[in-house]
Write a sequence for this structure.
């Protein structure tokens, strides 16, 4: 499902055009001419290669010939997200209206070897930096990181605290006057969860259902949210996708995810897959994405990778990237978000 075939930017454009509707060769050529100096021969060759790779098919004869997508690549950015989300949620043509368990078996294909090699270079750099920093400096930098993670992770979920008020709350335990008790608690729970991880760091090198439940219980502390796996169906705002609807299916799926991640060698892939699939499974009544971000970070930092604060992420784009995965099984946009935030962490935290 997650294919890694070579494809040119021009061919990617063609796939983008065909996600909207079937088109003739002439229509495709006309669209390409807006960005490329192409001839009929070049367009025909691109179309032939896409047919050969199984992405599109040709139908009809002569002037009535048109092209359509047969196998949408799920690791390539073939959608224009602005255009995609202009379509009303109930009118979008989606592949995944319900949870697709086979996606778990595709985790191995989320990153290619070249991408992982680059990540490992950054990992070694992080280990080297941390070995040279004194404990006071590390503690101070972790505090700054936790403040920014707590602020942005909460903001993604609709919390209206400012970054400065978040800092005042975490450092001085002073609640913002214009924010609710629930918003203050949401912020503080991020800190409590991350403090727990740092005190038990060796227990977080791997994903586990036990760690998932423990972190969730800290994330929803004093927020009147059930802490066990949910017993009923839930919906997600902005999408028709429906997660699993009973506790037993959720338990079995978490076990399957656990087994799959144990077989994965790269901790970086484990961390990313944890973020994606806890958000996708939605095992709890609430607090799923916050839990996913914290648990993913625990795997990163326990294995000497930079953790992600998400400070620079656009909240709407983050949600769109997740929804396109829910609806079309397309991982490319959320993967890009993750890698961009990892790069942000490399340049903004724990610098030498």
């Amino acid at each position: 499902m997650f294919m890694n075939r070579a494809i040119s930017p021009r061919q990617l454009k063609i796939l983008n055009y065909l996600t909207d509707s079937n088109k003739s060769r002439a229509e495709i050529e006309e669209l390409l001419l807006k960005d490329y100096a192409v001839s009929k021969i070049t367009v025909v060759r691109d179309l032939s290669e896409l047919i050969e790779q199984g992405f599109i098919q040709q139908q009809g004869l002569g002037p009535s010939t048109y092209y359509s997508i047969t196998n949408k690549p799920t690791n390539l950015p073939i959608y224009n997200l602005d255009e995609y989300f202009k379509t009303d949620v109930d009118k979008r043509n989606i592949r995944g209206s319900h949870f697709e368990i086979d996606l778990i078996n595709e985790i191995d294909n989320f990153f290619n070897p070249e991408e992982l090699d680059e990540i490992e270079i950054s990992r070694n750099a992080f280990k080297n930096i941390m070995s040279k920093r004194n404990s006071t400096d590390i503690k101070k930098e972790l505090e700054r990181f936790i403040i920014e993670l707590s602020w942005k992770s909460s903001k993604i979920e609709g919390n209206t605290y400012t970054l400065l008020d978040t800092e005042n709350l975490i450092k001085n335990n002073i609640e913002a006057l214009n924010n609710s008790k629930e918003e203050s608690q949401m912020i503080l729970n991020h800190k409590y969860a991350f403090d727990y991880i740092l005190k038990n760091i060796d227990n977080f090198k791997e994903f586990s259902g036990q760690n998932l439940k423990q972190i969730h219980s800290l994330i929803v502390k004093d927020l009147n949210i059930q802490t066990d796996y949910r017993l009923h169906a839930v919906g997600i705002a902005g999408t028709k996708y429906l997660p699993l609807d009973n506790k037993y299916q959720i338990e079995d799926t978490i076990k399957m995810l656990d087994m799959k991640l144990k077989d994965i060698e790269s901790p970086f892939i484990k961390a990313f897959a944890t973020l994606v699939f806890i958000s996708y499974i939605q095992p709890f009544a609430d607090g799923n994405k916050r839990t996913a971000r914290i648990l993913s970070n625990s795997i990163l930092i326990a294995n000497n990778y930079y953790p992600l604060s998400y400070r620079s992420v656009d909240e709407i784009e983050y949600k769109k990237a997740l929804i396109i995965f829910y609806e079309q099984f397309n991982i490319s946009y959320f993967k890009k978000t993750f890698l961009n935030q990892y790069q942000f962490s490399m340049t903004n935290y724990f610098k030498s």
